[in-house]
TrEMBL record, chains A, B:
InterPro entries: DNA-bd_dom_put_sf, MerR-type_HTH_dom, MerR_fam. Transmembrane segments: none annotated. This is MerR family transcriptional regulator. It holds the Pfam family MerR_1. It comes from Kitasatospora purpeofusca. Residues 1-72 form the HTH merR-type domain. PROSITE patterns: HTH_MERR_1, HTH_MERR_2.
Length: 150, 150
DNA sequence: CTAGGTCCTAGAGTCGGGTCTAGATCAACA
DNA sequence: TGTTGATCTAGACCCGACTCTAGGACCTAG
């Protein structure tokens, strides 16, 4: 039932260094317990929290914000509105990211399609080519968007 | 038609520092031209490229990868397969990000809903509360997932 | 003429988020 | 018994991506 730092590292995907670092940074729900010899002991709940934690991180929440959230939770009841606000703020943030990424995806898919069709037709040399154009226009290098012109 | 670094900064949303930095890092399609007095001159195409560039950045492409892409393009025809591979790699990456973020969104929406309904019912004190539980269980602080238990 | 604003370069500093090192302790195995 | 291997602490270090500073040039308006 008790887990060593090494086991937690393996199962969480974080390094032991990162786990100690997170602890110093106050990112754990509970103060991490120690064995009599000073070694850390973790439990399943810590893994569950770490899973959430890494989700929050990978969706762009800063360690500072995660710390704030967990600190509120540690303080107990009375600040649920604050916690909710924090969650909502991050949710909005993530939704904005998704929209932005989807916009980027459209741009990229268009570019990829252009490359594909040109390569398929062996017309690759009509893609953006700075040095070629340098001989025919005053300004050597047209914008990369020229790729999409043909 | 010619743009100063200040104008480009305004219109691209990047700082003048960042623009000079990007230039040093080889992220421009063209070597940036200079006036006789040494000042940089930019053109519309640069803005268009910078727009793409910031899309790539904000979708997580590193400056190193952007540099590689623009360098390939500068070299002219013959490496279209490489460019395409680079684009596809990043596209996959972005798609993975979107999936990950959508997973996170589901988790967050669930959490937010729980807070909302509990706050609405005035039952907030049944949410995760470390100090409270500390008095009733050997291990003081259950996982934050306990929030979802009620 | 001078004051303010924009620009230049080289290089130092910052910040977030880890990562790594040194030197020590401890448990288990051959 | 001694060597491995996991752990501990404090603190140095790293990396990417900027950001800022110092010291100087230049331009334009008042």
């Amino acid at each position: 039932m008790d887990l060593s730092i090494g086991e937690v590292a393996q199962r969480s995907g974080l390094s032991v260094h990162a786990l100690r670092f997170y602890e110093r940074e106050g990112l754990f729900a509970n103060p991490v317990r120690r064995l009599s010899n000073g070694r850390r002991v973790y439990h399943e709940e810590d893994l569950e929290w770490l899973a959430i934690c890494t989700r929050l991180r990978s969706s762009g929440m800063s360690l500072a914000d995660i710390r704030q959230y967990i600190q509120l939770a540690r303080q107990g009841p009375g600040n649920e509105h604050e916690r909710l606000a924090l969650l909502r703020r991050h949710q909005d943030h993530v939704e904005a990211q998704v929209r932005e990424l989807q916009g980027t995806l459209e741009v990229m898919r268009a570019k990829v399609r252009i490359y594909e069709t040109h390569l398929a037709r062996g017309e690759a040399d009509r893609l953006w080519n700075p040095s070629h154009r340098a001989t025919t226009t005053p300004r050597p290098c047209p914008a990369p968007e020229a790729e999409e012109a043909s």
